Amino acid sequence: MRNLKTVVLTNFVYSFSIEICQLFNRRNADIDDLLMNVSGIHLYKIGQINYNCIDNN
Q: Quick check: 55 and 18 in contact, CB under 8 A?
């Protein structure tokens, strides 16, 4: 299982690069998309950690 910090940071970099690409393609780049992607993966990873803790007990 990967570290929470590593997963969130990787997702941030990936989402940020997509937003930057949208700027160059004359599309609408929005900070809300970046925040929602990062918060979504953060919540998913926390849920996965909690599930594994409950499953091991």
A: no
Q: What is the pTM of this model?
A: 0.66
List pLDDT tens digits, range 1-52. 567 788 888 888 988 888 888 888 877 777 888 888 888 888 888 888 888 8
User: Distances in Å between the alpha carbon of 54 and those of 12, 31, 48, 49?
Assistant: 28, 35, 10, 9
d(CA 21, CA 29): 9
Distances (CA, A) of 49 to 6, 12, 23, 55, 57: 14, 19, 35, 10, 13
